[in-house]
Amino acid sequence: MTHDPIWNKTFPKTTGNTCTVILIDGLSSSVFNEELLQNQLPILDSLKGKSCFVEHGIVSFPTMTGYGFYPFITGRDALQSGILGLRWFDRSRISGNLRNYVGRTNIHMNDDITDSIKNFFQLSAPMYTASINTYMNKGVSHDIKTGWAHTTAKYHDYWLFSALSGIPFVGKYISPDHFEHETHAINIAKRQLEKNPKFQWITLPSPDAINHVYGTTQMYRDILHHIDSLIGDLIDYSHHELGQQERMFVIVSDHGVIDVHRNLDYQDIAKKLNIRMDRGNSVNIFSSDLSQPIEELKELDAFYVINGNLCAYLYFKDPSAEKINNWSQKLSSHTLENFPRGDSLIHIPKLISEYEGVDIVAYQSAENQVSILRRGDEAKVILRDTNALEYVPIQGNPFNYPDSLFNRPMSEEKWLNLTFNTDYPSAIYRIYSLVTNPNAGDLVLTSENGYDLAQDYELFVKNYKGGHGGIRKEIISVPFIINKPNQNDTLIHTLRSEDVGLMIRNYLEQK
User: Fold this and answer.
1) H or E element that contains 320
2) What's the pLDDT score for residue 158?
3) Which pairs from 457-461 meet CB under 8 Å and 24+ separation?
4) For residue 178, what are the contacts with CB-CB under 8 A and spacing of at least 6?
């Protein structure tokens, strides 16, 4: 950090309003509320009392780090970014189809997002902008990542990192724990603030890492207490030490978390369907290359792409196509429902929906129509005009919505306002928008509470004890705090992450 030439570089004077976004990765809304009641988060409690506080902020689906940052830095739905998560399968390519931004290949996230929409880093140029620990920062002036510190903190109990941390005098610098790592990140953020960034982004990843490895233990709560104090230090430094009275501070999260007690093996699903399937690496350590030729997938029937560990896309090769790239288009619903296996035809969506631990199975069953399956229940989501979706139960009620919401074409805003406090907030629009995307999987799966879809997938711990990716309330609903100078105490029941992005944009542009 000390040798980074950016620290000494001169940028044009920052003018107009400024903003810092602090993203707490993997913030459980229920734990947040419990800790507030116990007076364990005094800074955030005080801050929300003089801010716009959103009780049920609805984030992007799949509920993924990186991908879920996009709405906050553009004011647009994450699907408009041109990517579909941390991992997805780009049907349009003849090589590098599996886009995996975990590990050294994270550099491709900025490459793959669209150029047609400018984010706040780009819109603020040539003024100084800054980010800490994000790969979704196209156009940023000053990018700092503390990847090694994050890794050592996440796996701090494993022998290698534990041994490194035990080295006298220097151990905490070589192998910091979560508390030391987040303190270091905020110290960097303070130094960035001295250059008065027009827009600054800070990711605090420890809550998510702790939940993945241990679940929502006391350590998870303790790191939230620590983050609370760090946020107080940062805001105080900006306002009082640097005199940045007009700086807006936005506290958000990309997803909530759920504890996991059972990890499902994708190979069991492949055996159930009698298909050849692969899922690729969880992380790319040794190379930043994404150029595997699609010809190397010719022996496969399907690709199982994991997002988070509670959501997966299932891509199928067209069994009837006589061409090299027979992955290039989604299968028709007729093929999915009558998939040839030997001398028989199988209904793939129904078979997978019956698998233990699978919650929602969604697929495009007709033009402008998505089928939702869940434990024998079935419904259709139908686009009736350009901005109205209708929920039509066929058998049972997969989303457990009240009867008053059946067979009523409604706008996205109305669905949001009527479902934000249900088991599946805003699921109608979030699922429909994803599933009808041309590059989405033929099937989109989410897991039941307590299950994940990625057995033996993680590099060091193999099986996670917590996770995200799905669309249940516990994961897709998080608190947002938007603090502007002279902001009155305002309580809002629900907003989407892209709505918060629009608020940021309006403030930066002084609208």
Assistant:
1) none
2) 62
3) 457/279, 457/282, 457/306, 457/309, 458/212, 458/282, 458/309, 459/282, 459/283, 459/285, 460/155, 460/158, 461/155, 461/212, 461/213
4) 153, 154, 156, 206, 209, 210, 219, 223, 226
Query: For strand 339-341 and strand 344-346, is the pairing parallel, antiparallel, or unpaired?
Result: antiparallel
In this prediction, residue 153 carries a pLDDT of 74
Q: Is 292 helix (H, G, I), strand (E, B) or coil?
A: coil
Residues ≥6 apart with Cβ < 8 Å to 353: 361, 373, 374, 375, 376
pLDDT tens digits, one per residue of 421-433: 999 999 999 999 9
Let me know if 288 is exposed, middle or buried by CB neighbors in 10 A (0-12, 13-18, 19+): exposed
Nearest Cα residue to 430 out of 442, 416, 417, 418: 416
Q: Determine phi and psi for 100, rounding to 5 degrees.
A: -125, 115
Distance CA 278, CA 386 (A): 37
359: three-class secondary structure by DSSP: strand
Among 497, 21, 25, 50, smallest CA distance to 248 is for 21
The torsion of the CA quartet 174, 175, 180, 186, rounded to 10 degrees, works out to: 60
Angle of helix 147-154 relative to helix 206-214, nearest 10 degrees? 30
SS3 track for 295-313 = HHHCCCCEEEEEECCCEEE
Give the separation between CA 421 and CA 415, rounded to whole angstroms. Answer: 11
